[in-house]
Design brief:
Shape of chain A: globular
Largest sheet of chain B: 6 strands, mixed
Mean pLDDT of chain B: 96
Low-confidence stretches of chain A: none
Distance between the termini of chain B: 28 Å
Oligomer: heterodimer
Strand content of chain B: 35-45%
Helix content of chain B: under 10%
Shape of chain B: globular
Largest sheet of chain A: 7 strands, mixed
Structural class of chain A: mainly beta
Number of strands of chain A: 11
Radius of gyration of chain B: 13 Å
Mean pLDDT of chain A: 96
């Protein structure tokens, strides 16, 4: 079965960096575009970033552009998010999520359980 | 403030029907499909509707979707207490080259 397992969350001070990982299994990872989506405490879902199946295309929300970098290693079936210059408003549960194959980018059919990032001094 | 506008909350009695709206603009809903997600407390979001009106396998036909112009609608018939959740619309914005979510609608089944 499809599995997406995030890791790397934790408590970090403002201005510092963190790298999230998402290990995929149960499907052919290198065929799918993958997202990071986050949910701040008490808030709605916020799309963060997207990477195409082969890593050639990357897209970012304005709120993280220039600070976050999405990447993938298809040989390891793993997605990454390098988060730099973290701010308090980046505090959220971060989900990695898979796009429906051969479908619009907004169609996401599988989600990981999420990893909590807390930015606090 | 979300690019896609949803009502913050809707409510209805068990067995009744509810519609949740999602309003956007030319660059997003006007030119791209709408998707809908259900997010139950303590769980991960679930895809309910994609490509405006298609249901993934396993989603009951009580859930339906439609789109007209720059607005999308999620319909739920035969409401059950288990349908209490937050519902989000989403689409691609062609001008911004981003995925956008609505602000979410909390459904209460009275």
């Amino acid at each position: 079965q499809v599995q997406l397992v995030e890791s790397g969350g934790g408590v970090v001070q403002p201005g510092r960096s963190l790298r999230l990982s998402c290990a995929a299994s149960g499907f052919t990872f290198n065929r799918y575009a993958i997202h990071w989506v986050r949910q701040a405490p008490g808030k709605g879902l916020e799309w963060v970033a997207l990477i195409s199946y082969d890593g050639s295309d990357k897209y970012y929300a304005d709120s993280v552009k220039g600070r976050f970098t999405i990447s993938r290693d298809n040989s390891k079936n793993t997605l990454y998010m390098q988060m730099n210059s973290l701010r308090a408003e980046d505090t959220a549960v971060y989900y990695c999520a898979r796009t429906v194959l051969y479908s619009a980018y907004a169609n996401v059919d599988s989600w990981g359980q999420g990893t909590l990032v807390t930015v606090s001094s | 403030q979300s690019v896609l506008t949803q009502p913050p909350s809707v409510s209805a009695a068990p067995g009744q029907t509810v519609a949740i709206s999602c309003s956007g603009s030319f660059s997003n809903l006007g030119n791209n499909y709408v998707s809908w997600y259900q997010h139950l407390p303590g769980t991960v979001p679930k895809l309910l509707i994609y490509d405006n009106n298609r249901r993934p396998s396993g989603i009951p036909d009580r859930f339906s979707g439609s789109k007209s112009g720059t607005s999308g609608t999620l319909g739920i018939t035969g409401l059950q207490t288990g349908d209490e959740a937050d519902y989000y619309c989403a689409t691609w914005d062609s001008r911004l080259s981003v995925v956008v979510f609505g602000g979410g609608t909390k459904l209460t089944v009275l």
